[in-house]
Write a structure and sequence with these properties.
Elements lengths: L4 H34 L3 H5 L15 H8 L3 H35 L11 H13 L2 H15 L5 H25 L4 H8 L4 H12 L1 H16 L3 H6 L7 H8 L8 H21 L1 H12 L2
Length: 291
């Protein structure tokens, strides 16, 4: 028996939504597991898999109370504050510099006749710096930072993260600016606006989705970094990933309920920011932030 067009469409929709729901469950289950582990008693954690609060186990907020008001709470808040300061500052600086560099690569023509370099060659060289594994350059960073006294300082970490994120920011914003019409800028300059004023008043507002998307990507890269924080900090500028890693290697063994609460504290800001600026991210990616 042959299906009609409407029946065939419904079958396709059912299959599509079934696959999407299945994939969403697979992706979200680790987060759900971390959430329920953070509200378990230690005995419930070691008794084996228990999935449903009030059915399989009795939930408790002991891990959260210990995290937020216990003896380690000052260290937790200091690490969280350090991560926020370093991530926001470095991402903002990378976006500002990346916006100017990306705009210049799309509106001006550069030519270095000695080695036949043009705009595309410069852009490829910039992104090639991001292709380098961070572990390759971390030892020179350590030597240089020790010489200049930048080890375990906010300035040193912000500089390292900005340099690390800058090629990515330039590459994305270059593609985004290339998709914006030049006519509006030229009209403004004919009316007497300078190039910088046209860039500030016309181009940047139009590029807001791309700027926000780039900022968020740089923010996430910095927030999740472990290697730079491990090698370039030890106390004052230590970040939240470093604190979580340290708590997982204590002599008494990993306390999974406490580590789960710490992990949720780490990912919650990124989830919240993503939900708040989701429409800008989507618009930025679709219009041309990533090609």
């Amino acid at each position: 028996m042959q299906l009609t067009i409407s029946q065939s469409r419904k079958v396709k929709q059912v299959i599509t939504y079934t696959l999407l729901v299945t994939w969403a469950i697979i992706c979200l289950f680790p987060i759900y597991w971390v959430i329920i582990t953070s509200i378990k008693h230690p005995i419930a954690v070691f008794q084996g898999p228990k999935y449903f609060p009030w059915i399989d186990f009795q939930p408790t907020l002991d891990a959260w109370k210990f995290l937020l008001t216990g003896p380690t709470s000052p260290a937790v808040f200091r690490s969280w504050k350090n991560s926020a300061i370093l991530a926001i500052s470095s991402a903002a600086i990378a976006v500002v510099i990346g916006a100017m560099a990306g705009y210049a690569l799309t509106r001006f023509h550069y030519h270095w006749s000695a080695i036949r370099w043009r705009n595309n060659d410069i852009a490829f060289w910039v992104i090639s710096q991001r292709m380098l594994p961070a572990v390759v350059i971390i030892l020179p960073y350590m030597i240089m930072y020790r010489f200049f006294g930048l080890i375990d300082t906010y300035a040193g970490m912000i500089l390292a993260y900005t340099v690390f994120n800058l090629p990515f920011a330039i590459w994305i914003l270059r593609d985004f600016f290339a998709g914006l019409p030049v006519d509006l800028e030229e009209s403004a300059m004919i009316d007497g606006a300078s190039r910088f004023k046209a860039f500030r008043s016309i181009v940047l507002p139009l590029a807001a989705p791309g700027l926000i998307a780039t900022f968020l990507f740089c923010l996430v890269f910095t927030w999740n970094d472990y290697l730079f924080a491990l090698m370039l900090t030890f106390s004052k500028a230590s970040t939240l990933p470093m604190f979580i890693a340290g708590e997982g290697t204590q002599s008494y063994g990993p306390q999974w309920w406490y580590l789960s609460a710490l992990s949720l504290l780490s990912i919650a800001p990124m989830i919240l920011i993503t939900l708040l600026v989701e429409r800008y991210i989507t618009r930025g990616l679709v219009v041309g932030a990533i090609k």
